[in-house]
Every structure is written in structure tokens, then in C-alpha cells.
Amino acid sequence: MTSQLFAVSFGADQPLRQAQFWAGVLGRELVDDPHDGVALLPSADGGFRLRFLPTQEPKVGQNRLHFDLTSDSLQEQQRTVARALELGGQHTDVGQLPEEEHVVLADPEGNEFCVIEPGNNFLAGCGFIGALSCDGSQAVGYFWSEALGWPLVWDQDEETAIQSPDGGPKITWGGPPYMPRKGRDRLHLDLMLPAQGDLEAEVDRLLSLGATRLDTSRGKVGAVVLADPDGNEFCLLTPR
């Protein structure tokens, strides 16, 4: 049995402050995290669990992963933007064009996210977090489809997307050109080994799909740190 996507994790200078910001934006419940830090529980629409873990490493450059938040109307988009700004977010420039209708914001520690305009058919039915949008290759989309057992729902012009068979947010990869990598990833995926699962067998499976095993200080007891074929770190956790 394959491991499951457990959470999207943020490295944070102030984990509680970051969790409070995202709880306010998303309307989520804040809880203690069983694997350290603080967390937001998944939403009823299938949104990801979010974890906020302490880090001493500064954010360098634009993140390679960001959330796309959906809107049912222009008024809802405006309310989401206003709420984020009131909670400590800010507008930010990632090269978006003036005619584009989505709004690009950053949380209090500079992590970028987009509030998408109403009428976006690609994210229809995906929930408030419509997608985790990633800078990455077609090959890495294939890797994650196999790693999670999620089908491809888009595969065109070197852009890929996957989605859980149960629905919820998509994970997308935008294809070339790619952003330069600067420092360690501020956001990463956490996978959870099933109860009674074989950790080394699952590591071997992920390695056979194209992952690499990393020697990094992020690893802790009960966790293995890996990188996908594009070099993005992710963690494989064991149940506690």
C-alpha cells in the first residue's frame, strides 16, 4: 500500500503567527501538530492539511510552490483579498501582467499565493484551495502521479496536473521555463506511511520512480527526506 499525502508544510520563522494568518484566510481550525509545530486541519472540501514548522533559514527568492485560492464571484474574490490584507498579507509582484484578473498576494513571511478570478473552469469544483501550483517539469508530474496513485487530469504542452480520486485541490506543474533554485524549499510535501507499512520498502518504491534520498538536517526520527526528480524536497513520515 502506497503512502498518502499527509500535508503541505511551511518552514516558518514564527509558526504560530503563520498558522493564525492561514487559519483566518481559509477559515480553518488550528491544532497542535503531532510531528512538531502547529497545523490546520483539512477542510470539508478536501483541502490539504497545512503544517507550520520552525526554521532558521531565511526565505530566498520566489517559492516554487504556491496556493491558488478560488472565487465564486468578483465580490468573493475581493473579500478574500481584503481579509488576507487585514490579517497581515500584502500585495506582491511576481511578473503578473496588468490585464490578468487574478490577484497575487504574500503571507506575512512572504510566501506567495494567488486569489483566482471567478469563472476559472480548470479549478471548478476543486474547493477553496483550488490548486497547489508548482514550478516543475512534465516528468515530475508523472512521478507524483505514480507516487500518490493520483491520476493525471491534465497533460498538455509539458504542463501536468494530478488530483486525488476523491476530488479536492489539484497539484499542477507549469513546465518550462523554470525558476532558478535559490536555497532550500520553503514549502514541501509530507507523505505518511500507512499503519503497519514497511518504511524501507516504500522508500525503495519512491527511489525506483525517480526520487533521491537526501542527507539533510530536516530529517528526524521517523522521517525520511527525499527529493523528487526536479530536486524538490519532500518527507516520508511514519505514524505516531
Automatic annotation (TrEMBL):
Domain VOC, chain residue ranges per copy: 125-239
Domain of life according to the entry: Bacteria
InterPro entries on file: Glyas_Bleomycin-R_OHBP_Dase, Glyoxalase_6, VOC_core
Gene3D superfamilies cross-referenced by the UniProt entry: 2,3-Dihydroxybiphenyl 1,2-Dioxygenase, domain 1
Annotated coiled-coil segments of the chain: none
Name of the molecule in the record: VOC family protein
